[in-house]
Automatic annotation (TrEMBL), chain A:
It comes from Rhizobium oryzicola. Keywords: Sigma factor, Transcription, Transcription regulation. Pfam families: PhyR_sigma2, Sigma70_r4_2. Belongs to the sigma-70 factor family. ECF subfamily. This is RNA polymerase sigma factor.
UniProtKB/TrEMBL annotation, chain B:
This is Anti-sigma factor. The chain crosses the membrane at residues 83-103. It comes from Rhizobium oryzicola. Keywords: Membrane, Transmembrane, Transmembrane helix. It comes from the Bacteria.
Amino acid sequence: MKTPSESSFEGQILALLPALRRYARSLARSDAEGEDLLQDSLETALTRRGQWRGLNLRSWLLTIMTRRYRNGLRYRTRHPDTDIEEALNVPAPVAVSDPLERRRLEVALNSLPEEQRAVLMLVVLEGCAYADVATMLDIPVGTVMSRLARARQKISESMQAENIIPLRRPK
Amino acid sequence: MTSHDIRPSEDELHAFSDGQLTPDRQETVAAWLADNPEDAARVSAWQAQGSAIRTLFAPYERRGAGDGRLLKPVRHSTFGRRLALAAAAALLFVAGVGTGTLLPVSGAQKQPVLASTDLPDEAHAAYLIYASEVRHPVEVAATEEAHLATWLGKRLSRTNLKVPNLGSLGFHLVGGRLVPVDGQAGALFMYEDQNGQRLTMLVGRNGESRETSFRFAAVGKVETFYWIDNGFGYAVTGEVPRELLRKVAEECYRQFPA
């Protein structure tokens, strides 16, 4: 397998792959779906390389991925028979401490509408400026703000502490 | 000008929490938050959310062994791709053996990064399936409690498995059965009160060795309390008042030795 040179289009994408993989997973409901979204977005990027203006490649790729995510039907039909891919994609150790808390966060994220989830992830995970998110998604900054606010509100509601009771082992 | 004159807008609070204000405005909002604990609490909750999200997905920021393949301009059918990936995996393996630097591509570590515990879902399903069963709700009845405990204890690789006694809460043991929990052998105990109202208690192995708090999940009227303790996941499920179900959970927690 020939490694693309670092300055080439492919080489630059290759350098961004870890970040793209993380963003894809942050939008998806499972590892398999995240990997499918990543592949699908890269396919799209490669076929549309003529449209890339040589400006910020990362923003361009994040935009493509966000769009693919919102038209999600095609990539979602591809799995779940992902045995080989999964074997190749050896995960790093889990970083989040409490497994139940992790699950609650996942459930909360999965309950968000796609447009809110994308804005939240671009801001929180990818560190994008609000104005950049607006440009990438082709929406007004005000819409970015309201989607962000609603996403945060919803997560707070579903993560509310009233559903957690400290363990007691009375003796 | 006091900080009360410069009440930040909702958008500015978000921008503050994301570090997207100009430095002087960031400072002004910080001063406002120092005097306004309610806004400060919201901002810090958003920041905590953000940090939990980053922690959750951080492990995915990595290279995959097949990354080069992802950038081939034309892709063949999925099947062809699989063959290519299999070939790549084989190559990597051979290369690894050859150089003594085996890349970690073994299937043994295949567990997904988000090994989410599906305990409440599994407990809910088990309750729905078995608690409504009239003729065969359990495999081993309460009359053989000692056998039940030994048998399920063996399957769970847990010596001295004790079946919780919920008599003090008005529930007696109906019996138990072997069920799959997270792809492994688990135990389901069923209880009933004098009106025939049933509860189930699910125990399964869990890779996590830590202890968690009680969590609560509801699907319609069916409610579940679940927790993880020392390598085992537990869940109690039923359609009884929440306070009662919580007492049941606490009682089970108390009776299962850590």
